[in-house]
Specification:
single chain, about 475 residues, mainly alpha, MetI-like fold, 2 domains, 20 helices, flat
């Protein structure tokens, strides 16, 4: 049944996409002279039907875009193929006027941004252009069949009434375009350039280099550095995401069950204490914990006084000459500590969510299972846990993607503390404990290697999107109620 629904949705999407353009062709073929004239003057079809205000607004939008295309888009699109050819020159004194003159020069980054904006505006205008022709054709058919054609005032009333949701969604949609889509397009474009500290505008130009950056990352002339670092960092990123997600998820559920169990006294007090831990800003907690577990920190002093350091030496966990336990300075110790600290930070939040979910667990099924003789473990495994997975499944997927991009925990715990001993990672400005996102940050902020950072950003995006789509498609198939029945 679920597969049939997915097939229906897919066929519907394909049909809607094809119909969008077939309706445009039908409007051109079957429309009258006014509809065809709208291909040249977009408001002509509205003028023919005496919808003057609509015709004027659409025509003004067309004129505004033409002016924008001529004055803004064309100059930038002409340079977009090369990203500029005139390099920056220092200002010079004119011997005739004795004034400092700055010669015109190209800024590759601005050309890139303006070029992408020009292409995006062209794409939006083409959609608007097609929609306008279809709309004019629909007005023609309504007029010929004797149906009422809305005036401009009536359309405004609908936008503030029955179609008010369109009005409300306009600003958020514009915000998503400006804050997410356009920056993402710029990020993708930079991955195909040589934009780095040796090609920094406006002092220098950068240009297109095709797939060279991807080749360098996966096995080119830089494979010994970036390729090696990429494999190391990607492996740790995925390992961290899995462990950080499921340790907090399972720990939160177990803690919620423990607090809600009959044998625990003062459950409200315990729950309040964990909620207070959530209230403390995460960056404050992480910085304090980093100082706490530093080589000369409080916990190391406690370990020395209690003999824990000597025990670790005898077990071979630290070197014989070590004067401290390298909680945040050894790659193995640091990875373990990062996961443990993340459990400390993340479990209270998951506990709170799990508590709310458990309050709505199917008590009738649990009671029936008890009557049938099922023990607590079987009830938990067959009813409670599947129910939690169904309810919290989307949040679990979101947490996994969030942990792939969990910048705070890794960066705040290791910055200026952990120093890599791996020459291959050091040459690529990476560390054993880096995630892809923290590596990307170091490449941009410390090395100005924007081209490779953009490639890594694309890879992070692909991993996150792929996992999200696959996980959601499997999770949201429907018919999951029977999963938590005996």
């Amino acid at each position: 049944m679920a597969e049939e629904k997915q097939i229906q949705k897919k066929s519907f999407a394909e049909t809607a996409f094809a119909r969008y353009f077939t309706d445009f062709a039908e409007a051109i073929v079957r429309g009258d002279w006014a509809v065809r004239s709208s291909l040249i003057v977009m408001g002509m079809g509205f003028f023919k039907r005496k919808q003057i205000v609509k015709g004027i607004l659409v025509t003004l939008a067309q004129i505004a875009y033409i002016l924008c295309f001529v004055l803004f888009s064309i100059p930038n699109l002409v340079k977009f193929s090369t990203l500029g050819t005139v390099e920056y020159q220092d200002p010079k004194i004119n011997p005739l006027t004795f004034e400092v003159e700055q010669f015109p020069y190209d800024n590759s980054f601005l050309i890139l941004i303006y070029g992408i904006m020009s292409l995006f505006l062209l794409f939006v205008f083409l959609l608007f252009y097609v929609h306008n022709v279809k709309r004019v054709y629909a007005v023609m058919r309504d007029a010929e069949s004797g149906k009422h054609v809305n005036t401009f005032k009536e359309d405004l009333r609908q936008m503030l009434g029955r179609k008010f949701y369109v009005t409300l969604l306009s600003l958020p949609t514009l915000g998503v375009i400006l804050m997410n889509i356009l920056p993402l397009l710029v990020l993708i474009a930079i991955a195909f350039t040589n934009y780095d500290k040796n090609h920094m505008p406006p002092g220098s130009l950068f240009t297109w280099i095709g797939f060279e950056n991807f080749t360098n990352l996966f096995g080119g002339k830089l494979s010994l550095t970036f390729g090696y670092a990429f494999r190391k960092v990607l492996t740790w990123t995925l390992t961290w995401a899995v462990l950080a997600t499921f340790t907090c998820f399972i720990g939160g559920i177990l803690l919620a069950l423990l607090i809600e169990s009959e044998g625990v006294k003062f459950p409200k007090m315990w729950r309040t204490l964990f909620v207070i831990a959530i209230a403390v800003p995460q960056f404050v907690t992480l910085i304090l914990v980093r100082n706490f577990f530093a080589d000369q920190g409080i916990f190391n002093q406690i370990c020395q006084n209690l003999g824990i350091l000597d025990l670790c030496k005898s077990l071979g966990l630290v070197s014989k000459n070590a004067g401290f336990i390298p909680f945040l300075t050894d790659k193995n110790w640091t990875k373990v500590m990062i996961i443990l600290i993340n459990i400390w930070v993340g479990i209270p939040y998951q506990m709170l969510i799990a508590t709310g979910v458990l309050m709505n667990a199917p008590k009738d099924q649990i009671e029936s299972a008890r009557i049938d003789g099922a023990n607590k473990w079987k009830i938990f495994w067959k009813i409670t846990m599947p129910y939690i997975l169904v309810v919290q499944g989307p949040a679990l997927i979101t947490d996994f993607v969030r942990n792939i991009n969990n910048f705070n925990v890794i960066y705040l715990l290791t910055q200026d503390v952990y120093i890599t001993q791996d020459a291959g990672l050091y040459k690529s400005n990476a560390k054993e404990v880096d995630l892809l996102v923290t590596w990307l940050f170091r490449l941009t902020q410390e090395e100005q290697n924007y081209k490779m950072a953009s490639v890594i950003g694309i890879i992070v995006f692909v991993i996150s999107v792929t996992f999200t789509l696959v996980a959601y498609s499997r999770l949201m198939k429907g018919g999951r109620e029977e999963d938590y029945q005996l």
